[in-house]
Specification:
Number of helices: 10
Strand order of the largest sheet: 3-5-2-1-8-9-10
Helix content: 40-55%
Distance between the termini: 25 Å
CATH superfamily of the largest domain: Methylesterase CheB, C-terminal domain
Structural class: alpha/beta
Shape: elongated
CATH class of the largest domain: Alpha Beta
Low-confidence stretches: 337-345
Strand content: 15-25%
Largest sheet: 7 strands, parallel
CATH architecture of the largest domain: 3-Layer(aba) Sandwich
Length: 345
């Protein structure tokens, strides 16, 4: 009987420090493969594999597309690529962004759940927003184990808190206790639980979309229903997927958004739009003042008065847009995560 030998771990802000501490507590003979996603800046080389190899006894690397899995190895998703799992191999692809991230945690978790079912242990660590929540629910739904860092122990508690709101975690514990837990789980048999749901068509469809499968993207059997929202990334129409109370959105290009990430994306679009409006108004103001000055130099007082008045009107409008930008930036602080303390289970 197989054991829990597939560990899928995700983090965002504070993740590098978390993974350094975690891998240092893992045994050198761990009979499992670890797959790590950390939100990171695209187009730059990641030094995380070297950092983790120095921090603990297990070697860490960036996998190649279609590379075979090996136990006792840490695989790190490269910048600007999703890391997905198939049966016995790893995919490294530039699929559509999820929650405005690539790599994202949800695609790794979903494909791990689809390929390995109860053998998967999903781990959500420190971070912002809620990437990983839907994927952790998929792991749990397929009989895997859900592990969440205690939000009180996280550098950034929002992502663990949202995971706990979405999934009944099997373990919620501080980082100092997580290494021994994972080592113990790696030696426990992965049994098919009673009532385990079959692979849903939605899970299979989203796994295909993560690889930018054109047949899946163009399918008329796409899950969900049309929503009133548009994708902040490509401005395409979004479809709403309700997966057992977990709501998320996808556009026809494949970009995926949780409600919280969609709010963050909309905030970016609003700020970008207002910045463009402010720039256009300031350019118009500058040109109107320039025309007013030229009219005065030519002793055209009527024209000068007209352009001067227009410039002052635009100047007032630009001030209003500037005040809106400042007020939005003050309001776009990290939302509260709630005061309730998650229960260890």
């Amino acid at each position: 009987m197989p054991s829990h030998d597939i560990f899928a771990l995700g983090a965002s802000a504070g993740g590098v420090e978390c993974f350094q501490r975690l891998v240092a507590t893992l045994p050198p003979d761990l009979p499992a493969s670890l797959f790590i996603v950390v939100h990171q800046t695209p187009y730059t080389r990641s030094y995380l594999p070297e950092i983790l190899s120095r921090a603990g006894p297990l070697p860490a690397k960036v996998p190649q597309d279609h590379e075979e899995l090996r136990p006792g190895t840490i695989y790190v998703a490269p910048p600007d690529h999703h890391m997905l799992l198939g049966k016995g191999f790893i995919r490294v692809v530039q699929g559509p962004r999820e929650n405005n991230c690539r790599p994202a945690i949800d695609p790794l978790f979903r494909t791990a759940a689809l390929a390995y079912g109860p053998r998967v242990v999903g781990v959500v660590l420190s971070g912002l927003l809620d990437d990983g929540s839907a994927g952790l629910a998929a792991i749990k739904d397929q009989g895997g184990v859900a592990v969440v860092q205690d939000p009180n122990d996280a550098y950034f508690p929002q992502m663990p808190t949202n995971a706990l709101r979405s999934v009944v975690a099997d373990h919620c514990l501080p980082l100092s206790e997580m290494g021994p837990l994972l080592a113990s789980l790696a030696h426990q048999p992965a049994t098919e639980p009673k009532g385990k749901s079959a692979h849903s068509s939605t899970l299979e469809w989203e796994a295909a979309v993560a690889e930018w499968d054109l047949e899946a993207l163009q399918s008329r059997q796409r899950p969900g229903k049309p929503s009133s929202f548009t994708c902040p990334h490509c401005r395409g129409d979004l479809w709403e997927i309700d997966d057992g109370g977990l709501i998320r959105f996808r556009c026809r290009t494949g970009h995926a958004w949780s409600p919280l990430s969609l709010l963050a994306g909309q905030s970016e679009v609003v700020e970008e739009t207002l910045n463009e409006a402010f720039r256009a108004l300031k350019e118009k103001e500058h040109l109107e003042f320039r025309l007013a000055r030229q009219a005065r130099e030519r002793h055209n007082e009527q024209g000068a008065a007209y352009y001067q008045k227009q410039a002052e009107n635009v100047q007032r409008a630009a001030a209003v847009v500037r005040d809106l930008l400042l007020s939005l930036r003050q309001e776009n602080e990290e939302p509260p995560t709630g005061t309730e303390k998650p229960t260890k289970v």
